[in-house]
Amino acid sequence: MPLTPIHGEPALLAGEEKALIVADLHIGIEHELFLAGAKIPGRTPELRARLVKLLKKTKAKKLVIAGDLKHNIPMSSFLEEREIPRMLEALSEVIGEIHLVPGNHDGGISAYLPSNVKLHSNKGFVLGTLGIWHGHCWPSEEVMASPTVLMGHVHPQAVFVDGIETRSAERCWVRGKWNFAEAHKRYSILGEGFLMIPAFNSLCGGSHVNDLGQRKIGTVLRHGLARIEESELVLLDGTHLGTVGDNAI
Question: What is the pTM of this model?
Answer without folding.
Answer: 0.94
